[in-house]
Specification:
Elements: E1 13-16, H1 22-33, E2 37-42, H2 45-55, E3 61-65, H3 71-85, E4 90-93, H4 108-136, E5 140-145, H5 158-178, E6 183-190, H6 204-211, H7 220-230, E7 242-245, H8 249-252
Parallel strand pairs: 1-2, 1-4, 2-3, 4-5, 5-6, 6-7
Helix pairs in contact: 1-7, 3-4, 4-5
Length: 257
């Protein structure tokens, strides 16, 4: 008996970038649990393989190592999804890098790196995925991972916040180009989230719990649950939107500083 029968993403294939850990990993895990076959991408090969192995179910989570900001790799990843599974239905551009730095001292190298991954990688993944979805002729869903820093200023994150705000505008613009093909496109904007990376700061969870109206920082499952809704059939008529997931922090936006 097919164990995926009756699940939201049964028979569907998804790509998610930057999914070796944290939010991306949890989205991949939930997609597989809900019946999808997932290409789990991370630039770190060991991390990608370990993540895929951890959540693998009936061979439906495939490690896909490579730089999500590299155009050749992006195109190859989309081609692999279709070649190995016969379909592509959901693409989540989650990969991104955060390079903190004072605006007056920020280097061109740091700026270009942030833009290449956060903007360039997302733009061209969406482009390659959209072409594949259009060829299939039955629509699909794209999702970008933004951030509350695309809405509220955050110290030493001018470049990063700018890139995230741009992603949300990209989603709005693509509504005009992709809606005729049955493709919806949205974004999630997480607030403070406890992941392996942020947990390196021993005070992170406590600090954000104190200034978040709901009394705690998010965990990856909070973001993943919202992401799965936006790429599910239940959200097919939602497009060009950004869903902020921050426990109410943006309502008042108190600074962690």
């Amino acid at each position: 008996m097919d164990q995926t029968t009756g699940k939201r993403f049964a028979g569907k294939t998804a790509i998610i970038t930057g999914a070796g850990q944290g939010i991306g990993f949890e989205i991949a895990r939930q997609l597989v649990f809900e019946g999808a076959t997932v290409l789990l991408n991370d630039i770190d090969e060991a991390l990608a393989r370990r993540a895929a192995s951890t959540i693998n179910e009936d061979g439906r989570c495939l490690a896909c190592t490579g730089d999500s900001g590299d155009l050749v790799f992006i195109n190859g990843m989309v081609e692999r999804a279709v070649a190995e599974t016969g379909t592509l239905d959901v693409v989540i551009a989650n990969a991104g890098i955060t390079l903190f730095g004072d605006f007056l001292q920020y280097t061109p190298e740091s700026f270009q790196k942030v833009m290449a991954v956060n903007l360039g990688g997302t733009f061209f993944l969406a482009q390659a995925a959209a072409k594949a979805l259009i060829r299939q002729g039955r629509g699909g869903s794209l999702l970008f991972t933004s951030s509350v820093t695309g809405h509220r200023a955050h110290k030493n994150l001018a470049a990063y916040g700018m890139s995230k705000a741009a992603l949300e505008m990209l989603a709005r613009h693509l509504v005009l180009e992709l809606s005729p093909h049955g493709i919806n496109i949205n974004a999630v904007a997480p607030g403070a989230t406890v992941t392996e990376r942020t947990a390196e700061d021993a005070t992170y969870a406590e600090t954000w719990s104190l200034i978040t109206p709901m009394g705690r920082a998010a965990v990856p499952g909070d973001i993943a649950s919202a992401a799965l809704f936006l790429v599910s059939d239940a959200a097919r008529h939602i497009t060009g939107q950004t869903l902020v997931i921050d426990g109410g922090w943006m309502a008042a936006s108190p600074s962690p500083y």
